[in-house]
Automatic annotation (TrEMBL):
Pfam families: FAF1, UBX. Residues 305-383 form the UBX domain. It comes from the Eukaryota. InterPro entries: FAF1_2-like_UAS, Thioredoxin-like_sf, UAS, Ubiquitin-like_domsf, UBX_dom, UBX_domain-protein. It comes from Oryza meyeriana var. granulata. Residues 249-261 have a biased composition (Basic and acidic residues). Residues 288-303 have a biased composition (Polar residues). SMART domains: UAS, UBX. GO terms for molecular function: ubiquitin binding. GO terms for cellular component: endoplasmic reticulum. Residues 249-305 are annotated as: Disordered. This is UBX domain-containing protein.
Length: 387
């Protein structure tokens, strides 16, 4: 039978332990909200004070010729292939700017290649169709290797307890974030999608309650203005395409008229009373012409089909994918016309982006051919929305 004094001491000890855990948790959450530059300095000072064991090795250097921002992207595709969420191959500050511009949250994945749970999580969860489509449609995704580059600072800021580690963060500025959700350890695709969807719903509800009516009206007006700009741009492109087709039709009519005039001038020479050199020659010549021209036309059409052998996959912000074959002499402008003809809503102003190595194809590259762009035999392009 314990005495009242011993029970009271046990309760005080348990309360002190709980208070200490809450304080540590609050400290970690506040650190995650500090600017990235401060966190980097804090991590460096912590690293200088700690002593590394003798048997540990320094972090591996990035592969030759690969920028530090693309190390995670290159390593991930080398091991797990090209079917994965679209991870932006740039610094975190640029990703935060993109997320703020698009009004989306940021999905952060810290990759530990040596952890035993990393490979099954990447193959069975992160690279599945349902998660790839969900992340591409709702988040701006960014990844880093836990012990390299910006991944070192993120580990110090987010302090993961175990791997695999994912987090949902909200950009406060270009150098500061607010952590909304953390997922540690292996989870199934359905569980991860449920967690992410719940985070989106909670954040949306909090934002709606915090917005004044004037701000909500301004947001609606801005969206309506953006939709009107998109429709105006689409109408302009449609008018340009219609004018181009009309001009092409007139040129074809002129060419047909010119050929008919030439054929009309050539007919009297055959029927003017002059006899052909060989009997039956005049009767056989039209059949020879028709027999020799037809294979040439078929050959031309067949060669055109065989040369249109560059397959281009277009990935849209809403997760849709469209594939189209292009001729090697087609220009980047033809790809834009194909995208506009699909009528995908909510795109607005955009540019085509090749992820690895990252390269944009905008106004200056409209006349570049598919062959000069290096798209043969296939390539995947992403739609990046512009303001």
């Amino acid at each position: 039978m314990s005495s009242p004094s011993s029970s009271s001491a046990a309760r005080e000890s348990a309360g002190a332990g709980e208070s200490l855990r809450n304080s540590c948790h609050d400290l970690a959450r506040s650190l995650a909200r500090l600017p990235a530059s401060i966190m980097e300095g804090l991590w460096r000072s912590m690293a200088r004070r700690s002593r590394r064991p003798r048997d540990t090795q320094p972090p591996l250097l990035p592969p030759p010729g690969v920028p530090e921002e693309l190390v995670f992207f290159a390593e991930f595709e080398r091991q797990y292939g090209g079917h994965h969420p679209f991870f932006y191959g740039c610094r975190l500050a640029e990703v935060l700017r993109i997320a703020r511009r698009e009004g989306k949250l940021v999905f952060v994945y810290l990759h530990d290649p040596d952890h035993p749970y990393t490979e099954p999580f990447c193959r069975r969860t992160l690279c599945t169709d349902v998660l790839v489509e969900f992340l591409d449609a709702n988040f701006v995704s960014w990844g880093a290797v836990a012990g390299r580059g910006e991944g070192i600072g993120m580990v110090a800021s987010l302090q993961p307890g175990s791997f695999p580690f994912c987090a949902v963060v909200s950009p406060v500025s270009d150098e500061s974030i607010t952590v909304l959700q953390q997922v540690e350890g292996p989870v199934s695709p359905s569980e991860l999608v449920e967690i992410l969807q719940r985070t989106i719903d909670e954040q949306g509800a909090a934002s709606r309650h915090s917005w004044p009516d004037e701000l909500a009206a301004a947001v609606r007006a801005s969206r309506a203005e953006e939709e009107e700009r998109r429709r105006s741009a689409l109408r302009l492109r449609q008018e340009q395409d219609a004018a181009y087709l009309e001009s092409l039709r007139k040129d074809q009519e002129k060419e047909r008229a010119r050929k008919s005039v030439q054929e009309g001038l050539a007919k009297p020479k055959v029927s003017n009373g002059l006899r052909p050199r060989y009997p039956g020659q005049a009767a056989r010549e039209p059949s020879k012409t028709s027999q020799t021209r037809a294979p040439a036309q078929n050959g031309t059409a067949a060669s055109h089909r065989t040369e249109a052998n560059t397959k281009i996959m277009i990935r849209f912000p809403n997760g849709e994918r469209k594939q189209q074959a292009f001729h090697h002499t087609d220009t980047i402008r033809e790809i834009y016309r194909y995208v506009d003809s699909l009528g995908i809503s909510g795109i607005g102003n955009y540019q085509l982006v090749r992820s690895y190595p990252r390269k944009t194809y905008g106004r200056q590259q409209l006349e570049m051919t598919v062959q000069d762009a290096g798209f043969y035999p296939s390539v995947t392009l992403y739609i990046e929305q512009l303001q």
